Amino acid sequence: MKTMEFRTYQTCFMIRRGICLCFIAGCLLSSSTVWATFSVESIVIYKEDNKTPLDDSIIDKYFNKAICDCNSSVYIEITLNDPTSQSTNSYLQIVTSPSGGCLDTSQHLNTDCIKIYSDSGKRIQELPARFQFAVPAKTLMGEDCTNLDRVARKIIVYTDTDGDGTWESAKELSYTVDTTPPDTPTSPGLTVGENKVTVTFKTLATSTSSTSSSSTSDAGTTTTSVVSDLKGYQILCAKVDSSDNESPVFDNPPDPEYQSALNICSATASSDAGTKLPDQGNNLPDISVDVPDIGINDLGVNDQTNTSQYAISSSSSSDDAHLAKQFVCSSLSSSGEISVSNLENGSKYRFWVVAIDNSYNPSSLLLVGDGTPVLVEDLWELYKKQGGQASSEKCFIATAAYGSYNHPQVRILREFRDAVLLPTRLGQWFVETYYRLSPRPARWLAHHDNIRPLAKAALWPITLGAAGWLYTSPMQKLLLVFGVGLMILFVWRRRNRRLISGKESN
Amino acid sequence: MKTFGLWLISLLVFLGSAAAWAQDDFQDERVRDKNYRSPQNYLFELKFGPYAPDIDSEFSNTSGQAHPYQHIFGDSQALMINGELDWEIWRPFGTIALGGSIGYYTNSVNAFVDDTTDNNTSSSSTVRSASSTSISLIPFSILAIYRFDVLAEHFKIPLVPYAKIGLNYNLWWIDIDGETANYQGQKGSGGTMGWQFNAGVSLLLDCFDTQAAKNLDVDYGINHTYIFFEAAVVRANGLYRDNALHVGDTTWNGGIAFEF
Question: Given phi > 0 = left and psi -120 to 50 = alpha, else beta, which region is A228?
Fold first, then answer.
C-alpha cells in the first residue's frame, strides 16, 4: 500500500515537474521572440569597382581631390541582424554627416542631413539581411568637396523602432575627407651627371602638433588635427626636342604615388550602379541595388583617358597634363635631393617636383628647369689619360690559374726556372717532371673559374719566395733565411714548453 | 609523476645554486689573489686614422706633374678602419708576436664634367657633375711585432712602445655612380702588394682602475687594455710589379687594444 502510494506520488510529482518545465520553456521561447535583438552589424564602403572594400588602412585616405573631381560612385553595403523581428512601425534611415552627428535635441533628423538611402526611411521588417546601394563619392564628401583639409565625416544608420519620428544611432562608420593639396616645394636646383640628373629642392616642414582647420561643409564647421600629412616627393620629367615639345622619357615609368583626375577618372568610366549580391541562403528574395532617391549625377569622366601616346606641345602644357603617369621619373622619396638615372647624354630634359600628402593629393608642380646629362671624368679615366700604368690584374699566379703567359707572376716563375732551376741537375729534373705531370691539372684548372682563386692563393707564397730569391742580394738572402729559421725555432720551442708545462700540471 | 617532477626541480635548483655559489667562491678567490693572471696569448686592436692613397706618387718622376688623385679629391682624406689580431709567441724581453690585419677605406666625391671631345685628353673643366666617383681599399697585412712591455710589467710604467713590420696586399676598386669604372676596356679594380712599418706607443689603462682590470681578467680573460697612437708608413707600390696602382700612405692611427 505504501509502495503504491509512493509510486503514485512519484508519478504526480513527475507530471507536475514536466508541466512546470514546459511552462518555463514556453515562457523562455516567447520571451526570446519578444526580446529578439535587431542590430546593424556592419557598414562597409566599396570602391568604384564594387570589389575592394575601404578597410581601416585606406578609409581615411581614399576621399581625396581626385575622387572629388572624378565624382565616381562608391557602394555602401549594410548588414542587418534579424530585421524581420522588428515591428511594422520600425524604420531605418542612412545619412552622411559631419562627425557631430545628425540629430537635434529632440532626436529628430536635422533637415540639412544628407540622406543617402531613402528620403523617408525604409521599414526595417521589409529589408533584407544584407543590401547594397551606390552613392556618388561627392555626396559622402559633403557635396562641395573642394578645400577640405582632413575633415572627419560619418555614415550613420539611424533607426526609429516605434515610428514616432525620433531616431537613434544604430551604427556609425567614420572616414576622413582631404581634398586640400600640400604646399608646393621651393628653391629648385639641378645638377647634371653622366646619364643622370640630380634635382634638389627645399622640402616642406611637416607638422606633428595638433592644428585646427575649419572647413565649410553642408553641416557647418568642424575642426581636425594635422599630423605629419606629407607622404613624400616625386620627380616628373619630359624629354624636350628642338621645338620645345615634351614627350615621356621612360617606357616603364615608376608608379605615381599621387592620384589625379587624369590618372584615375578613366578607371571609373563605368557608371553601373546596379549589382546583385550573392544569395544569402536565407530564403530572401533576390535583391537589386536600391538607387538613392537623391539621384545620381553623371560621373563626369575626364576625356584624357588615353595617355599612352601622350605628348604635350609647348603651347598647351599644364600642371594636370604633366601629372600623367607617363611623366613620372622617380620613386617616392622624402629627401630634398632626388636623382633621375638612365637618361641619354646630350639630350635635353625638363624636370618638375610634386609633393604628395597621405591622401595621395599632389601639390602644384614646381618647375625645376631643363638639364642635359653629360659625360664625366672619373678618377680611373683621368689616371689612365695621364699615363697611369696600373692594370686591373690582381696579384695571383700561374698561367693556368690566371690565363696569361705574360702575367707578371708567371714571368717571375719563368725567371726563377731559367735563373735558378735549369742551371742545376736537380733543377732540370724538377722542371722535366713538372712539364710531364702538369698539363692535365692545368687544363682542368683552366675550365674551372671558381677554383682559380684558390689556385692563385696557393701559388702566391711560392711566387713570393721566388721573387725574394731573384731580387735579393746574398746577404739579404742570408738574413731572410736566418730570420725565418729563427721564427720557426721560437714557435717550436714555445710549443714544447707548453707541452712540458701541461704534463707537469697533470 | 608529480612527486618526481618536484624532486627533479628541487634537485636542479639545488645543483644550480651550489654551482653558482662555488663559482662565486672560486671567482672571489681569484679576485683576492693578487698574483692571479689568466693566460695571455693574443692581442686584438681596433684602430682608425686618416688615409689618402698616394696614387699620384706614380707620376712623381714624370714631366707634366700629373696629379689625378689630387685633382679629383683635392686634399680630402677619409677614414681607414683596421682590425688586427696578434699571436704573442715569445716573451724573452718584451713581447714578440705575429699578426694579421684587415681594413676598409673609401672616399667619394663628385666627378668633373668631361669637356673633351676625344677619349685620350684630360678634361680641363672644373665643374662638378652629379655623378659620384669613389676609390675603396681593403688592405690585408701580415706583421711581425715587438712590444717593449718590460716597463709596464716590471716597473709599473704604463707605457708600451712597439714596432711592427710586414707585408700587405691591398684590394682596390674605383667606382663611378656605384659601378666599377671602365676606361677603354680596362676595369678600375685590382690589387697591389706592398710593405709597411708601424711604430707607436700604447698607454696601459689597467693602472687607472686596477680592480676593474682585475675583474676583466677574472671574468673575461682580458689581461690588459690599452689605447694607442702610432705612425704608419705604408708603401703599397706593387713591390716587384711596375703596373700596380700606388695606394700606400704615410699617416697615423689611434685605437684601442685588448690583450687576452
Answer: left
Q: How many angstroms separate the CA of residue A339 from the nearest CA in chain B?
A: 8
- A111 contacts A70 by C-beta, under 8 angstroms: no
CA distance B191 to chain A (A): 5
Cα of A310 vs its chain's centroid, Å? 27
Q: Is residue A96 within 8 Å of A136, Cβ to Cβ?
A: no
* Closest Cα in chain B to A195: B131
Yes or no: say if A256 and A323 are a contact pair by the CB < 8 Å rule: yes
Cβ-defined contact of A378 to B192 (cutoff 8 Å): no
Q: Quote the pLDDT of residue A279.
A: 35
Nearest-5° angle of CA A458, CA A460, CA A466?
125
- Look at A59-68, A217-226, A455-464, B53-62 and tell me which has the smallest mean pLDDT: A217-226
Question: Rounded CA gap, A53 and A42, in Å?
Answer: 12
| Digit-coded pLDDT (tens) for B58-116 | 887 766 678 899 999 998 889 999 999 999 998 889 999 999 999 999 999 999 999 88
A305 close to A133: Cβ distance less than 8 angstroms: no
Strand-pair category, A63-64 with A168-178: parallel
Helix (H) or strand (E) holding A157: strand A151-160
- Joined together, the cell numbers standing for residue B22 give 662555488
To probe the interface with A, which of B113, B184, B240 has the most A CB atoms within 10 Å? B240
Query: Among positive and negative, which fits the CA dihedral A431, A433, A434, A440?
Result: positive
| Smallest CA–CA distance from A191 into chain B, residue | B130
Three-class DSSP category at A343: coil
Closest residue in B to A377 (Cα) is B114
Strand pairing partners for A197? Answer: A192, A340
